[in-house]
Amino acid sequence: MTLYVVTIPGTLLSGLTPEARKELVRALRGSDPRETDLGVAEDLDLLTFYPDSSAFSLRLEVEAADTAAAETQARDLATGALSSVGLSADAAPLGDPVITGIAGA
Questions:
Q1: Structure pTM?
Q2: Minimal CA–CA distance to 23: which of 104, 84, 90, 72?
Q3: Which end of the chain has less Cβ packing within 10 Å, N or C?
């Protein structure tokens, strides 16, 4: 198994309260399967909103056997986290996941 950093772009089509944003980050934090703190070491920002835009990106750490499995697992985690704060796929559509880092086995 390998630890991957996966970036997923998205667009927020409805509002996100500060409380919901904190809860979303909390839901995403569970994406470090070995608690390696790779995100801390790499200054991984789990959730980035872009100025003057409804676009955002998620950067998630997942452990998987290959890149396809990592992308699928990251998308599932992102969808679940967004859903946990009341954002459906229609309210926060996601783009294609991209592998942006590999930590090794």
A1: 0.82
A2: 84
A3: C
CA 55 to chain centre: 13
Contact predicate 70/33, CB 8 Å: no
The pLDDT confidence band at residue 27, using thresholds 50, 70 and 90, is confident
Q: What is the CA radius of gyration of the chain?
A: 13
* Structure token pair of residue 22: 């904190």
What sign results for the dihedral spanned by CA atoms 90, 85, 79, 48? positive
H/E segment holding residue 75: helix 67-84
Structure tokens at 85: 């704060």
Hey, what are 31's tokens? 């994406």
Strand order in the sheet with 98-104: 47-49, 55-64, 2-11, 98-104
> Which amino acid, residue 50?
Y
Would the pLDDT of 42 be above 50? no
